[in-house]
Amino acid sequence: MEGRQKNIEGFRLDTASVKMTLNQAPSHVSGLLMSGEGLEFIEFVERYPSIMLKMVTFGVASAIGQVGTYTAIWVCHIYQLS
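Below the sequence we write its predicted structure tokens.
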């Protein structure tokens, strides 16, 4: 069990990567505002409100697929080491 615990610890998030990601958010928002793409997106959603459900569904399906993929890689990695 000790070997598995060591491998699990390698997958923890470090605060530096989280801070870097959060620090980039204002530049993304300002880019949307300055380019006008944010307003175009809002107008598009107002014209086609059903697109939001499709976008959310796509996002959730994508997230579930990524979790499945990385879980499979992680499990194969664990069993390869044991």
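The chain is about 85% helix and 0% strand.
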